[in-house]
What does this fold into?
Amino acid sequence: MPQGIFFLHAQGYEVEVWAGAQPPTRDELLARTQGADALLCLLDDKIDADFLHQNPQLKVVSNYAVGYNNIDVAAATQLGIAVGNTPDVLTDATADLAFALLLAVARKVLDSHRTIGQNRWQGWEPMGHLGLDLRGKTLGIVGLGRIGQALAQRCHAAYDMDILYTAQSPKPEAEKRLKAKQVSFNELLRQSDVVSVHASYRPELAELFNKDAFEQMKPTAIFINTARGGFHNEQHLQEALQSGQLWGAGLDVTNPEPMRPDHPLLTMPNVVITPHIASATLETRSQMSYIAAQNIVFGLEKKPLVGFVNPGVWG
Ligand code: DGY
It folds into this structure.
């Protein structure tokens, strides 16, 4: 994240950068944060109440991500610590990856690729590698926020897909623009040909996609998760795919992360998994870095952060 680091240096701040190839352990992070005014952390750094209480001098915690389920925001707010995130700039990159996973699963891109290397390509097969068309199908979006809308926009424009969604509040503008319809979670599961998760993760939503949910989905349905691995029960997902309860799955997030390299899902023909790379483009990560750094500078100056998770923190 050099852009953000340059910016912090240019603003006259002393910056300590973790240079290890692997992320710091919790103890290392705790120790290095002692005495710091601000922390720029990653989405798998667990910044819980205990961590914050051991670093009460912190004035800003800036997450290098839009999701901030790794941070105890209530504890931070109680301690007067501003919490920042990086919304907007990663919307397109994340929606693009969800769209790429969807196409890759629907058209069996990864399994077809493996076929060649494994010397299983014997010639053109009339009934081989048959995937699914997306035109006119129904996309169910769980959490129609910025990223959910960006995926819906892609699917609506490219394939005239019907859009169903669940959200905490109705989205009238998106309903008009995308002809989207708000439905209950169960209705969305039953009616959708593709279900894609884009909600903000909260503990009460843990394993929302479990045996019960997968059982309600169509056997021709595709499950896409680019939000957080905690949304799905991985064993139940595997069983649903193996039994034909579900047609395919595309995941950019796993439960837990990192996924073990011998996980059965990795070799299943109807599954494509990427290692949490949705925001990983040069342009997007650079913008995220700048916003994360701006959040620190603004927070230390007690000005509104660019991505302000707890705007009421200073009363
Ligand atoms: C985020 O920023 O929360 C995303 O998970 C990045 O891919």
Summary: The two ends are 31 Å apart (CA to CA). The chain has a mean pLDDT of 97.
